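pinging the channel bc i need a second pair of eyes. not urgent but kinda urgent?? the chain im working w is below, pasted from the shared doc
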Amino acid sequence: MTFAQGRRRLRSLWPKTLRERLILLLVVVTITPILLIGVTSYHWMYQVQIEKSSLSDQSIVNYERDALDKAFTNLASVSQLLVINGGLGDDVMDYLETEDPLEKTRRFLSIDKSLTNIGYSNPIINAVFFYIPAYESRIQFETAPLKPEWIGTRLEEMPFERFYQANQLSYYGPHPSVLYAHDDLVVSLLRKIEYGVGKHYYVYLETKFNDLVHSPSDNAQGSQRKQILSRADGTILYSDLPDYRAGEPIDDQGGSFKGYEPFVAAGSAGWKLHLLVPTSEYKKEVNLWQNQFFLMAALSFFVTVAAAAYILRMVNRPLRQINHEIARFSYNQTEGPSLRTPLQEFDMLFTSFRKMRENIVELIYEVEQKEKRKAELEVEKLMSQINPHFLHNSLNTIQWLARANGQTEIFNLVKVFSRVLHYNLAKSSMIVTIREELGALQDYIELQNVRYDQRFGVHVDCEPEMLDVPIPRFILQPLVENALYHGLMSEQGCIFVTIKRCEAYRIGIVVSDNGKGIPPDKVAQLLEGGERTKSGLGIGLNYVKKMLEVYYDHEAVMEIVSAIDEGTTITITIPDRILGGEDHD
């Protein structure tokens, strides 16, 4: 498919009606912001929620790692107080070597008091005792009773898994406590202290593991969380998960922890604490946020769709009303019901339509009246055409009889009269040029001069470029006839006809005389057609007025200015083209 074909195909699918296009645009502007803003917001908010959950769980495992590191450090610090050469170990050796019962008792009480003070100053220490292999009673100065199975145990063969080794310090655990009636998990330190030649003893200290690391049973929220403690070499030392046993290797990347999100913190000695959070719990806040997000998105979409539907109805309903009124106006021009909407813009449109309808009705009425007036003029014209063929034939007969009998004046008079009669009774177009109108006027003037024996003179002044301008017939002749019969009062009377361009696209026709003038009431009577001339062709100024209305509408202006004993001036201003009626043939 070419680009042009694809474009034509797309154009064919494009809606053709305003309603369909409005629906399409509303759907686009409704869905597009929700998709763009929704997808962007969802992506970033999802990342924020995931980071929030990750940071929270990572901070927990970091805190527990720090607590374990601090506990190991405290165990090492307390063990330092129990060494010889400056520590409590000197008093223990003196106690073991003295034979005096009283001295032995005194030293025992002193050592017991010192151990008590150490316990008070280090409350995390759960148990302390000395293990001296060289003596029959190897375990000495235990701070609390030990489990019976520990009485004869050799600490050189420690039954627990070693956590890590640091010089003479061996860390173990988590393992059950050695104290009687205590089943808590603990981490412990076994420190080897050398004295004399080839002699050594051990100091054992332990602290509760669950006080350092939150147990899954501590609260309901953590009941599904699991913990794994691994050595630096990656083998498991302790695990809450049945599938991960002590001594097995662990996947540091967390790929094998199905259903859990792993969080890891490494201790200072290289060991690692793993916090395994169930995926459902890890994403609980994210899921809650997702539900809220989709709920708000659905609500926003519903509100937007409702708003779009309201806008569609708000626009479509007034348009349908306008369309209905236009359709009704095509066959019924009567006044319809007033249209009102809640929107000022459509009310203004309805008002404009109502005014336009009124103007059209008025225009139709004016056209009907003009056509009626044209018909009346045509009737008058037809009435004036009393068998023109008979008249022409009769005049021709008279003309040739006069010529045959040598009556030259009668011959000329009949010839001019025939031309005037032929021009006025012709059935050709009502539109002629100024040149043709002036020719007919000259014939009329010649006829009247013969009739009145040169009583008056008519002076015509027409600009050459005006000769081919179209005008209705019988415009000049009635004006001159009016000056002849109503203005002149002596043989010295003169009539002036002036035709020139008065402004752009308009011409002025002025007919003036120096006669006796016309009274104002007589002027009004002539314009209204109340009096018909008793001589001439009897067409009158009323005819001129009607012709101007028919062919120029309101663009024609006719003025009569008359002064008694001074004369009369008739001025007509018309466009240089015909606005209505027939065209010029």
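so The two ends are 57 Å apart (CA to CA). and The longest helix spans residues 18-80. — does that match what u expected or am i reading it wrong
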